[in-house]
Amino acid sequence: MTYTNFTVETDADGIALVTWNMPDKSMNVFTVEVMDEIDAIIDQVVGDTGIKGAVFTSGKSSFSGGADLSMIKGMFTMMLEEKEKDPDNAIQKLFDVAGRMTWLWRKLETCGKPWVSAINGTCMGGAFELSLACHGRVASNAKSVKIALPEVKVGIFPGAGGTQRVPRLTNAQDALQMMTTGASLTASRAKAMGLVHQVVEPDQLIPAAKQMIKDGLKPVAPWDEKGFKVPGGGIWTPAAAQLWPAASAILRRETHGNYPGALAIVKCVYEGLQLPFDTALKMEQRYFTQVLQTTEAYSMIRSLFISMQELGKGARRPAGIEKSDLKKIGVVGAGFMGASIAYVSAAAGIAVTLIDRDLEAAAKGKAVSEKLVADSVGKGRMTKEEGEKLLSLITPAADYEGLHDVKLVVEAVFEDRNVKKVVIEAVEAVLPEDAIFASNTSTLPITGLAENSRRPKQFIGVHFFSPVEKMMLTEVILGEKTGDKALAVALDYVAAIRKTPIVVNDTRGFYVNRCVFRYMNEAYDMLAEGVPAAMIENAGKMAGMPVGPLSLTDEIAVDLAQKIMKAYIADLGEGAVKPAHMALMNKMVDEFDRRGRKNAKGFYDYPPKPAKKALWPGVKDLYPQKKAEDFDIKVLQQRLLVTVALEAARTMEEGIVIDPREADVGSILGFGFAPYTGGTLSYIDGMGVKTFVDLCDRLAADYGDHFQPTPLLREMAAKGETFYGRFDPYAKKAAA
Ligand code: NAD
């Protein structure tokens, strides 16, 4: 039999090697067609008396990344369409679709012939759930092998048997930890947990998998054997009595009840371990169907899975411009940002001329990479040779000669218009005529900087976030005159260094900083109202933000916030900043020298490690304090999210951001905006624009005009529109 996505070759021992190798895809993913073919292959293996058992593997360097975008999208589209027609039937249909994988994997598990999964590389989500249904699992010890059930990160959970098989193979605590964090396991960790049977050299993978079958592997899962016992004894043991109350508490602490997917994992494991296996699968299928219907799952899948991939693949790249092959770039300014930009570029195989005012400063910049490489080699994340190769790609320099053959220069010198002007002119004197100049400025509008350029069409902003090695987002900023070629090259560069870009039109603070300052400003208002600082910080975290707004101010630096406010006032006039906010910053910096984490004194005190940071007791003396009971924590949470979402809505209204996917993804990757909402605009769409506008009106009445809904929001509320409907990112493509 022939298949589109698989080959099945049976050897002389009667062992079928099923190799998954999808044409025209760099990674295997589950599609409806793939599942149909697996179904047919199971029938073939069962029906062919010449086949004793089967080994399932991948023909690509990775095993599989899990489900395909189009399949997930199709499921939601089907659900929405069916809901319009017949809501009850829609849920039944969703239940059936949600269970397709569950019962297909169960069919494989109970087909009567032994299956072994040979895991040769990254094995994620549904692909690992398929492996769990195989009777044997062998993994290669290659570094590229990463095993995970990461569904919780996109708002759902491992709903194809994952929550049932994992805790029947390993103890409940490790199972919960793995699934509620979505963390990746190495092959050896998976073996230690009992999730794979063998770890072997890459070239021994298939022979070892076949040997398991030759050695008489039983085609019966442990839980289908009579007398099967759950590892650790199940949930009615003294140990479990310790674990489960703590598990609920930890989940609450980590998620604040914001993630239905994470909660469902705990329920599935707890309830499932008390049920016979098939009933447990059905229970999991029910929870999966429920979670799929939540706004959180819908919004997170859209932003964190679909949109992120689409933006990463160049959704905003102008058509018709040849992909640029960036073998070498220049980075000017080898300070805090430039040094790290050089590192991430070299890590992507791009040669970098790293320039500073003198060779010593440039070499100091390269030393940052040397330290990062030494750390990675020490931790076994990089081989010595890889480290040496990376470092050999960075050439420190004190003049611009090395730029005569680059296609792109990233500028990261001091945030000073005059310094940048000198650098722009000096660089352009050497740079090839068709090369692109990208500035990493964080506050200076690109259009103004481009006035110093002889070729403003080739001038663009590429705004990195710190720490550059860790932050996944890069803002690409278009000046008034920036041309398509500059945008294409900038996006090719961002893709090459494996970050996600958002494309933003020029404005002060661009998109991310405009939004993030709202978060911090709201906290300054709260402080002035007498809200206890600890309550403000908790409200931020309970709303789903990674850090409280005062802690964030410390990280960014209180004196930098002061400097930025002063610059706003200097450029835009007194009205640009609330006087109370300016006064607070001045007091913190000028009176108390509290500059943030950088001088170990900000809204928090930062004692030497291992002591932990704690709120500065003096915060209480900044304003007359009220009691926590005087405030509603829910309202504080709303204020912190609504003010940011409103700013995002303003950027759409002003045409700064034009694609809602970018506003959403930018807000989550840029500053961790409550991921369960799907991002700033999904937060508004998720509750409905009308509800959001009503909420803004109430908050404006109580807390000030900055909560006033914008005209666009009022219009959208009146018309019953959503951001994704009004600014449909797919409409242009569909019309073309
Ligand atoms: P930094 O002070 O650490 O580094 C600036 C470097 O530029 C220094 O090494 C300096 O010697 C060098 N330099 C100054 N004039 C030069 C010249 N004429 N020629 C060559 N080199 C010169 O500053 P930074 O924090 O790395 O910031 C650099 C840029 O990145 C700024 O525009 C800043 O706004 C932007 N940025 C900073 C952050 C951040 O978190 N620090 C985040 C995003 C963007």
TrEMBL record:
It catalyses: a (3S)-3-hydroxyacyl-CoA + NAD(+) = a 3-oxoacyl-CoA + NADH + H(+). Signal peptide: none annotated. Pfam families: 3HCDH, 3HCDH_N, ECH_1. In the central section; belongs to the 3-hydroxyacyl-CoA dehydrogenase family. Coiled coil: none annotated. Residues 328-507 form the 3-hydroxyacyl-CoA dehydrogenase NAD binding domain. GO terms for biological process: fatty acid beta-oxidation. Pathway: Lipid metabolism; fatty acid beta-oxidation. GO terms for molecular function: enoyl-CoA hydratase activity; long-chain (3S)-3-hydroxyacyl-CoA dehydrogenase (NAD+) activity; NAD+ binding. InterPro entries: 3-OHacyl-CoA_DH_NAD-bd, 3HC_DH_C, 6-PGluconate_DH-like_C_sf, ClpP/crotonase-like_dom_sf, Enoyl-CoA_hydra/iso, FA_oxidation_alpha_subunit, NAD(P)-bd_dom_sf. Residues 509-606 form the 3-hydroxyacyl-CoA dehydrogenase C-terminal domain. This is 3-hydroxyacyl-CoA dehydrogenase. PANTHER family: TRIFUNCTIONAL ENZYME SUBUNIT ALPHA, TRIFUNCTIONAL ENZYME SUBUNIT ALPHA, MITOCHONDRIAL. Keywords: Fatty acid metabolism, Lipid degradation, Lipid metabolism, Lyase, Multifunctional enzyme, NAD, Oxidoreductase.
